[in-house]
Amino acid sequence: MIKLNQINKIFSDKHQSFHCLKDLNLEVKQGEFTVIAGPSGSGKSTLLNIIGLLDKPSSGSYEFDGQNVAKLNNNQLADIRREKIGFVFQAYNLMPVLTALENTEMIMEFCNVDKKVRRQRAMETLEAVGLGEFKNRFPAQLSGGQQQRVAVARAIAAQPLLVVADEPTANLDSHSTESLLDLMQSLNQELGVTFLFSSHDPRVIDRAHRVVHLQDGQIVKDVCTNNNDQQVAV
Amino acid sequence: MGLYIRLAWRNLLRNKKRSSVTALGITLGIGFCITTLAIMDGLSHDLITGTTQGQVGHIQVHEQDYLAKRQLQQTIENNSQVVAELRELSSVKAAAARLYSFGYLSKGNKSIGVSLLGVEPEHERQVTSLAEQIIDGSFLSQPTPWPKGQALSEEQLALDEQLTEQAIANAFAELDGLDTTSSELQSHTNELIDTLAPLPFSLPNVILGVKLAKNLQANVGDEITLLFETAQGAQQSLDLQVAGISRQGTDLIDRTRMIFHIQDLQKLLQLPNQSHEIAISTIDLNKVDLAQQVISDVLAASYPKLSVQTWSQLRPDILALIQSNQALMGTLVFIIFLIAGVGVMNAMLVSVMERRKELSLLKALGLKGPNVVWLVTIETLVLTFVASIAGLVMGVVLGSYLQKYGWDISQFGEFSLAGVGMTSALKAKLTLNNLFIPVIVMFVIALLAALYPAFSAARLLPAQGMRAS
Ligand SMILES: Nc1ncnc2c1ncn2[C@@H]1O[C@H](COP(=O)(O)OP(=O)(O)O)[C@@H](O)[C@H]1O
Ligand SMILES: [Mg+2]
Q: Which of A66, B190, B327, B329 could cross-link B40 (Cys pair, CB 3.0–4.6 Å)?
């Protein structure tokens, strides 16, 4: 579903340039539950931004869902993001003026999904993430973990092909981290949604089926474990 | 759409202080503009009615060169037929003929130059408020009974010739130092004049301007003497009686005006069935140009020497005054709106800057540039909409107060604009235009003001706001 070939990303301004991703090749298949692991500054966010079509590579080719997306313009990219990709960010995930339910519904509303259908689907999703009773709360009235669950609900409610999550647990305590990962994993297994997320937290990395190790913008290790057992270290 | 409005509304409520300050600017702007426009329209209306009802009427007919030269002989002949024909027209509500001249008025040892105005009292009442300007005594009604002058018979013409020759001979004799005083010549001459232009049976009634009366120390009922010249150039004097005192409100007019029944003045000036001016009041002042056309067409056939003008052609100064007044108010309104517009732009810019992360999130989630422009624009429109309703209420309340009770400007003294006496309370005039033009203009300005913030919001990169730092 995702095919990255010789991807380079160079950030440059007037004074300096920074080679962030270097000749990176990566393939992700439908239904994977994969983590991009690596220390801070290794380029995880940059890579996820490119995969999530939020940013364009400096060079290289990218095929998403069988389509070469390197040549698409911003509006076309926005259409693909809206229709096919769900996002969970580290922070600023939710619209502060919308309730949990409205946030969950939002993307479907932008996609002009029929009101009854989207309301029902949003409610079901919210219940699936265990927040049914908080549907009318605003983000500020929810804990950090609950906010990230709403973000996950929003990401999957629109039934995307892929959910991209950039350090979704970075701001969470260990208990919330556990339950968020449980949630993501079960959604992955039940719905078959592809999850691609980043982390530098070993407890999170342990839960993935595949770990792509990133260092200084290069993939240094790519391990398939298919092992859900937290006790076993990689 | 629903989501956009919900987002807009809640975002506005999020920073209640900023939103209400901006809304207050719009509200005050609209409310003030409605009031200003209403006052302006009231003033224009007062000026126009002051002009048309004060003296001018809606339309006037003159001998074609009269307005340029204003000579006594440039009259409308067959006055009564012309007036009768005009009164037949369906667009004419009333028509009143007038005659003008000058004279020298004296009482006791005081003498003052006066302008003479002859009117048809009953018709004049329907065209102007001349009759309502009487502050003492009463307005004119009937013409003074006056024996008809007769043409001279053959014998009298011969006598006239003989008297003239004798007068010339006497003049030469006087030059030679001979005493030629002839009472016989004088009495014969008086007889002839009496035949031609006899004196009235009673003293003709006249109205004096209030300041003229004061300067002459003349009161209602007093006798005064007028020295004047007939159309043929003969100097004559006649005793008159003051029937009333009028106050028009303009200094010059109150100082010099003297009003006659038009038939009396026709007799005095020896201009039978002639007038200088016919003032017309039409059915609808808004269609005055149409009425002018109709009247011109009707008169052109039988009276080719007459010309027809509307009030604005006769008083271009008033029209110019109204227009410059409108331009001034327009500028004021524009400045107010500009300030409100800058306020809106500033508020929206700040609000967009504060919400960069959210707007980036929306773009990341798949909103396109135009969607974001729309989002910010709708927010501005919702704010403007709410504030406009408050502004409309404010404008209607203020405007209808001023429409009902007026704005007392008498504290600034007696008002006369370009010769039009103004009533002391300036009354506003609320119209649909006055209400909706400010609102529409405000929406356009708010939209323009929203453009820059909206486009800068739309330019935000989807990934920018996502970085954790
Ligand atoms: N927009 C940018 N302009 C310049 N440098 C950037 C930009 N975004 C990221 N970088 C740099 O690229 C490197 C990788 O960043 P990032 O992808 O955020 O790493 P990670 O998410 O693994 O911490 C960092 O050194 C960062 O400073
Ligand atoms: Mg990062």
A: B329
Rounded-to-integer distance, Cα B124 and Cα B53, Å: 10
Mean of all residue pLDDT scores within chain A:
91
Please classify residue B356 by burial: count the beta carbons closer than 10 Å to its beta carbon, then call 0-12 exposed, 13-18 middle and 19+ buried. Answer: middle
Give yes or no for residue A20 CB within 6 A of ligand 1.
yes
In angstroms, the separation between the Cα of residue A161 and the nearest Cα of chain B is: 14
Check B364 against A54: CB less than 8 A apart.
Answer: yes
DSSP H helical ranges for A93-143: 100-110, 115-128
Query: CATH code for A30-56+74-229?
Result: 3.40.50.300
d(CA B217, CA B214): 5
For residue B467, the ligand 1 atom closest to its alpha carbon is 18
ipTM higher than 0.85?
Answer: yes
Mean pLDDT value across residues B64-69: 93
* Ligand 1 lined by A39 (C-beta under 6 Å): no
Query: Where exactly are the structural domains of chain A?
Result: 30-56+74-229
Q: Is A64 on the interface with B (CB under 8 A)?
A: no
pLDDT in tens, A128-184: 889 999 999 999 999 999 999 999 999 999 889 999 999 998 888 888 899 889 989
Measured between beta carbons, which residues in chain B are less than 8 angstroms from residue A107? 365-366
- A96 at B interface, C-beta within 8 A: yes
B3–A55 CB contact, under 8 Å: no
Cα A196 to Cα A49, A73, A161, A184, B4: the distances in Å are: 11, 24, 11, 10, 31
Residues of B numbered 344-373 whose beta carbons fall under 8 angstroms of chain A's beta carbons: which are they? 357-358, 360-369, 371
**How long a stretch of residues is chain A?**
234
- Do the beta carbons of residue B223 and residue B82 sit within 8 Å? no
Residue B214 tokens, joined: 């004061």
Query: Rounded to an integer, what distance in angstroms lies between the CA atom of residue B335 and that of residue B337?
Result: 5
